[in-house]
Amino acid sequence: MTTIHFDAVSHSYGDRRVLADINLTLTEHSIGIIGANGSGKSTLARMINGLVEPTSGTVTVDGVNVSRHGREVRKKVGFVFTDADTQIVMPTVAEDVAFSLRRSGLSKSEIADKVQATLRHMGLDEFPDHPAHLLSGGQKQMLALAAVLVRQPQIVIADEPTTLLDLRNARIISDMIQSLPQQVVVVTHQLDLLTSFDRIVVIDGGRVVYDAAPSHAIAFYRTLVDEGLRQS
Amino acid sequence: MSAATLGLYHPGSTAVHRMSAGSKLAAMLIAVVAIVLLRQWWQLAIAAGVVALCYAAARIPARVAWTQLRPLKYFIPVLVVLQLWLANWQTAVQICGTIVLAVSIAALVTLTTRVTAMLDALSTVLGPLRRVGVDPERIALLLAVTIRCIPLVAGIVTTVTEARKARGLGFSVVALGAPVVIRSLRAADTLGEALIARGADD
């Protein structure tokens, strides 16, 4: 597995500090990141492929500094966004997956083969010419994932990929992500989707407050939420 | 918003579909110039017949073809009345016929050509501009994103309109415009992030 390393990472949006002194080394296959809205978990996930740069500290992927070598790292790290609609660029399903390989240097036939194989793997091979924006929510998220996987990344980051989906589609997407051979880092509020993950990191107030196997980490997070509700 | 109203690709394997995007764009340019030069109504009628044959050869259903021309239904009658008032029926037929045929030809190209093929053709045509520092791929990407933003913004407008209706509010351009602009800017931010994440800046 790839090694993702956060070394004394902090981040602020203006005067608002969202992450403070994060030290983490992620080597497991499936890692969940949980925490309240605004806790800094999405910022943490975005730092892994350089969409957000730390205000201080360094993030490395297999020893490569993400801030200095963002393009190199992004070839290894795929990112699935919450709203697939904003990730889809091209008008049809096959064209959108092919868009990810546009600057890959592959020939048209190689791209077509890879696109076809990826669509088949994702169960979208019946819709290659279907308008992408007319797919169902679950299919759109599947397409967003296909567009990431066609680049064969070593790591897949997913920022709340099931938030906008119904339970069935959420399960399908979650199972698909977890079955990937790649290392996966998933930010989510849907705790039941994380029960078979290898490791869960709990973020609160921009800090890592718990880091353990799912059963312990989820129980800790529920206690944290309960305590917060009692105090409010 | 349907695929057809966006002028999207209509799948097929006809000879028209198989023609290269560059050939179709060149043919479109020549055909439109030729149509603009036509002066007699019967010449336009022959041209209309040829365009109709091309639609038939591409096996484009009449419903899809009509969807492409539908936006003209508000514009053409006004133009006809204006020409009848200012000129004569021959001029009205010539001007309106030319517009309808030009739009029909352009629509046939978009219906039978994938956007990626169009972008590839555009990149090739703009290739020589690399010497003066222009990146044709960037221009092609710009066009792809522009096309993509049409349903995205339309979706935002629909959501905001429905939210206003749900709250019992009437139509107001300002009240509609502000949330649409804010949400569009947010969507643009995310789209920008997605483009970076997907290697558009490789």
Fold topology:
The complex is a heterodimer of chains A (232) and B (202).
Chain A: E1 4-13, E2 16-26, E3 30-35, H1 41-48, E4 56-61, E5 64-65, H2 70-76, E6 77-80, H3 93-99, H4 108-121, H5 137-149, E7 155-159, H6 167-178, E8 183-187, E9 199-204, E10 207-212, H7 214-231
Parallel strand pairs in A: 3-8, 3-9, 6-7, 7-8
Antiparallel strand pairs in A: 1-2, 1-4, 4-5, 9-10
Helix pairs in contact in A: 3-5, 5-6
Chain B: H1 15-18, H2 21-37, H3 41-57, H4 62-69, H5 75-86, H6 89-112, H7 115-126, H8 136-166, H9 173-197
Helix pairs in contact in B: 2-6, 3-6, 5-6, 7-8, 8-9
Note the total helix count of chain A: 7
Which two chains form the greatest contact, residue counts included? A-B, 32 and 30 residues
The run of helices and strands of chain A is: EEEHEEHEHHHEHEEEH
What is the percent of helical residues of chain A? 25-40%
**Most strands sheet of chain B:** none
Structural class of chain B: mainly alpha
Assembly status: heterodimer
Radius of gyration of chain A, rounded? 18 Å
SS-derived structural category of chain A: alpha/beta
Q: N- to C-terminal separation of chain A?
A: 42 Å
**Outline of chain B:** globular
Mean pLDDT value of chain B: 87
Portion of residues in beta strands of chain A equals 25-35%
Write up what this structure looks like.
The complex is a heterodimer of chains A (232) and B (202). Chain A is an alpha/beta fold and 232 residues long. Chain A has seven helices and ten strands. Chain A starts with a strand and ends with a helix. The mean pLDDT of chain A is 91. Chain B has 202 residues and is mostly helical. The radius of gyration of chain B is 21 Å and the shape is globular. Chain B starts with 14 loop residues before the first helix and ends in a 5-residue tail after the last helix. Classes of the chains: A alpha/beta (232), B mainly alpha (202). The interface between A and B is medium-sized, with 32 and 30 residues.
